[in-house]
Q: What sequence folds into this?
């Protein structure tokens, strides 16, 4: 038969799924012999049953009654007994801590009779008894009866006036109880329930219901906590911090959750109960001062904190209450902490001999490391916020506003910091984006061009700040409140929050990035990062490469610990002044003209590759042959049409207009691109392969790998492979030839494709797009937020690899590819390569490496190390 109730003596800390974090840890402390009031836990399973069926499961009431009776026997008094009442708290407590999201009711068991019994218990302390009673009605009214809490607050406030709550006397509190009962009657049409057991029963159900309170739902969505876990409920014998000045309540950390420093961190409030400390009703005192007030409780508390740290082998936070000189533990858990503290604490615990360095690696996350790498705005200064957009790429950037790529390059060349502001960016803005400190757009979502490119570069970006009216022509933008920002004005953008500020906000640099750039560790945090990264590198099986297209990026990738380039895109090699040549290529009227255009491009591309091979010093470089549709390199259709219409057009413009119209596609993502271009435009891929091979010959030790994009059928690959292999052989250059797996068909026929490919690299951006049938640029802004709200997915499949769908295709391709060619090399080069959860997936799928933007390399290294510990999840909550 199902067991729905566990006494604190029956549970332990590993039963969080069933007992919730609070219940599991109360049981753990009980079993450690720490002073925990008696109590028991109703399981989250009972809650799930209640939420699904609208009624508590059979047998639950009987089990609760049995445990309550046992508790009453132990305590020698019964719940709400008139002359000597046992009181209890009814406390929520889910698997993951959801601070303040759900409900707790204290002092259950009080009514017009037992309030006198309670006073007697406390040696005739009427004030204390009435204070406890008014708290019960207040909490019960708000939580269980759904009465607006403000009503009680107002009544309390108007009684208090300028005084503190502790200044209220017994008679006043008794009056307040009457007022509160009146509020209950007015609001519900019924009297406050006097029956203690009925109070408890209703409170339990209210806690169950609080799982689905709107704020709890919102919090879970934000923190990615599953919606179907339910909460456990803890029934705990009350202890009282509000009996007088020899009593009180407090919270503490076993070390500083901000920095990880060991010491005494906590707050204490005399003559107070429950949430008074955090609610800030009176000023708390630092925990150290408890030593003066009650030395023996203080010493005991320190001993207990040490016991807990040694037992949990981690920072703990605790809640405690002192009742007339007797210390009681009411809660503990492994405490939340900042990213910096996480690294410091993990290595401190290693030094204390509490955990191994391997465990330290599992105690920190890639997300935390990423946070440590962003420059930040100084939190202490005043800022004038003028807009909020999407937090597309984190960091803090300050600079003069510019509205064009040219101007960005120009001013940056003069040593100015600039912020590139556009309605949205396109590939032509790349040089401006590189030159700028940050990018701000008024349109586009988290996967817009600006966002993706900025993240790749590790550059701060706020996108889709829709309140801004950007006028490129007038070189200014406006913000709500008649704010006009002209070219050259200073703004500050926060890519971590999406906020845009007028003027200059001071920025502090990340020491961790300086460390990755090669500076010797010189503070505790950086030393901690260094130790953990070294260990992660030793244990990881996955290689980590970079997505890098320029010698600068390549060099940074190496400094950050990359082991090669997994994706070197070549499209930028067709931009800028080379557009001319692409235009010639498109307009070529015969083989000869076309070849002439290609011949002109070849030495330029060769020089690009030389730079990259040199920067990589013998590490492998996977070059992807040109992928985007050619019309992306041609002038804009509208611009050309206007020119032609106004008679400003040259002959070439007129021809280009015809070409642009001819090349126009309804759905370019599924159009003439990738391998299809190579097959349709003779000589294009051959030119690129020759440029790669020539460059490789010039740089000793260069290790090129040639990657064919967008293959769907082995036949496509075979056709271009043959030509490429011929060129390599002619020039005497060795290079692997492989393909991207980014169409579902390629994944499903991987066994065939592997016959013609020496490596696969999963292009999971396109693969996600085609698997879901999402046009990435269109769907994110259009309906992803709605999808997230509806729970269609917990996180965008473009951010974290969708294991069930896209992941299944990857798994099939890995298995069938390796079966056909056992030495097939396997990697991933979509944006997922730097996403923690996706890195873990890649490890489990048996890939050889992940490739990600240079700035994500440390994150990928760390997560690859963590993935090597099989039991380690990609997140720790
Ligand atoms: P939360 O999850 O919001 O922290 P808790 O269930 O921990 O809620 O309870 C809120 C407050 O009430 C805490 O300060 C806790 O210490 C106090 N509290 C809970 N149960 C008891 C009890 N049996 N005796 C005294 N104080 C209690
Ligand atoms: Mg609470
Ligand atoms: Mg608590």
A:
């Amino acid at each position: 038969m199902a067991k729905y109730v566990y006494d604190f003596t029956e549970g332990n800390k590993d039963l969080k799924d069933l007992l919730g974090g609070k219940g599991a840890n109360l049981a753990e402390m009980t079993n450690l012999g720490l002073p925990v009031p008696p109590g028991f836990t109703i399981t989250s399973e009972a809650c799930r049953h209640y939420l699904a069926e609208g009624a508590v499961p059979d047998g639950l009431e009987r089990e609760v009654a049995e445990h309550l009776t046992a508790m009453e026997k132990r305590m020698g008094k019964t719940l709400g007994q008139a002359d000597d009442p046992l009181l209890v708290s009814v406390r929520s407590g889910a698997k993951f801590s959801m601070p303040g999201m759900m409900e707790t009711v204290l002092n259950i068991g009080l009514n017009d009779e037992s309030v006198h019994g309670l006073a007697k218990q406390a040696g005739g302390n009427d004030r204390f008894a009435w204070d406890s009673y008014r708290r019960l009605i207040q909490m019960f009214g708000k939580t269980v009866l759904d009465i607006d809490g403000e009503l009680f607050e107002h009544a309390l406030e108007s009684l208090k006036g300028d005084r503190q709550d502790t200044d209220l006397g017994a008679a006043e509190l008794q009056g307040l109880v009457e007022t509160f009962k009146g509020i209950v009657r007015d609001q519900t049409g019924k009297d406050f329930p006097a029956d203690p057991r009925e109070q408890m029963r209703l409170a339990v159900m209210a806690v169950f219901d609080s799982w689905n309170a709107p704020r709890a739902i919102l919090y879970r969505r934000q923190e990615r906590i599953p919606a179907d876990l339910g909460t456990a409920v803890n029934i705990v014998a009350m202890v009282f911090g509000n009996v007088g000045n020899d009593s009180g309540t407090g919270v503490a950390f076993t070390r500083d959750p901000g920095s990880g420093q060991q010491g005494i961190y906590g707050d204490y409030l005399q003559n107070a109960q429950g949430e008074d400390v955090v609610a800030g009703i009176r000023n708390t005192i630092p925990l150290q001062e408890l030593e003066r007030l009650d030395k023996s409780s203080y010493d005991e508390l320190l001993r207990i904190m040490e016991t807990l740290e040694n037992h949990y082998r981690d920072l703990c936070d605790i809640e405690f209450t002192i009742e007339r000189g007797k210390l009681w533990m009411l809660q503990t858990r492994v405490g939340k902490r900042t990213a910096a503290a996480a690294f410091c604490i993990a290595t401190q615990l290693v030094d204390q001999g509490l955990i191994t360095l391997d465990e330290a690696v599992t105690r920190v996350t890639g997300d935390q490391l990423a946070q440590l790498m962003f420059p930040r705005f100084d939190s202490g200064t005043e800022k004038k916020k003028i807009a909020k957009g999407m937090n597309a790429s984190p960091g803090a950037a300050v600079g003069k506003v510019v509205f064009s790529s040219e101007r960005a390059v120009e001013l940056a060349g003069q040593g100015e910091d600039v912020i590139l502001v556009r309605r949205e960016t396109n590939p032509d803005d790349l040089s401006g984006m590189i030159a700028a400190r940050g990018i701000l757009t008024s349109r586009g979502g988290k996967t817009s061009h600006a966002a993706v490119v900025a993240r790749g570069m590790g550059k701060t970006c706020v996108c889709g700040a829709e309140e801004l009216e950007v006028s490129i022509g007038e070189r200014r933008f406006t913000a709500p409140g008649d704010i006009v920002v002209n070219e050259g004005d200073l703004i500050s953008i926060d890519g971590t929050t999406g906020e845009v500020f007028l003027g200059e906000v001071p920025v502090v640099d990340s020491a961790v990035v300086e460390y990755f750039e090669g500076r010797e560790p010189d503070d505790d945090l950086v030393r901690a990062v260094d130790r953990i990264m070294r260990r992660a590198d030793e244990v990881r099986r996955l290689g980590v490469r970079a997505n890098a297209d320029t010698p600068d990026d390549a060099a940074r990738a190496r400094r950050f610990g990359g082991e090669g380039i997994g994706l070197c895109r070549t499209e930028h090699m067709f931009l800028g002044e080379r557009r001319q040549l692409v235009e010639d290529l498109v307009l070529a009227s015969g083989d000869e003209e076309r070849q002439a255009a290609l011949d002109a491009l070849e030495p330029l591309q060769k020089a690009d590759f030389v730079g990259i091979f040199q920067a990589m010093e013998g590490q492998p470089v996977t070059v992807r042959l040109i992928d985007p549709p050619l019309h992306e390199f041609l002038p804009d259709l509208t611009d050309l049409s206007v020119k032609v219409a106004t008679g400003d057009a040259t002959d070439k413009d007129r021809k280009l207009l015809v070409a642009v119209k001819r090349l126009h596609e309804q759905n370019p993502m599924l159009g003439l691109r990738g391998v299809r271009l190579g097959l349709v435009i003779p000589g294009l891929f051959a030119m690129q392969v020759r440029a790669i091979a020539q460059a490789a010959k010039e740089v000793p030790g260069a290790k090129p790998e040639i990657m064919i994009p967008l293959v769907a059928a082995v036949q496509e690959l075979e056709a271009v492979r043959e030509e490429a292999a011929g060129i390599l052989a002619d020039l005497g250059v060795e290079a692997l030839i492989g393909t991207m797996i980014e169409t579902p068909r390629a994944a499903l026929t991987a066994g065939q494709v592997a016959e013609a490919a020496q490596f696969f690299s999963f292009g999971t951006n396109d693969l996600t797009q085609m698997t879901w049938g999402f046009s990435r640029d269109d769907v994110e802004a259009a309906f992803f937020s709605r999808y997230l709200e509806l729970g269609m997915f917990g996180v965008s499949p473009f951010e974290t690899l969708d294991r069930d769908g896209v992941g299944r295709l990857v798994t099939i391709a890995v298995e069938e590819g390796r079966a056909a060619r056992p030495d097939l090399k396997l990697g991933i080069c979509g944006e997922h390569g730097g996403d923690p959860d996706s890195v873990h997936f890649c490890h489990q799928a048996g890939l050889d490496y992940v490739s990600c933007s240079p700035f994500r390399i440390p994150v990928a290294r760390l997560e690859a190390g963590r993935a090597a510990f099989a039991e380690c999840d990609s997140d720790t909550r």
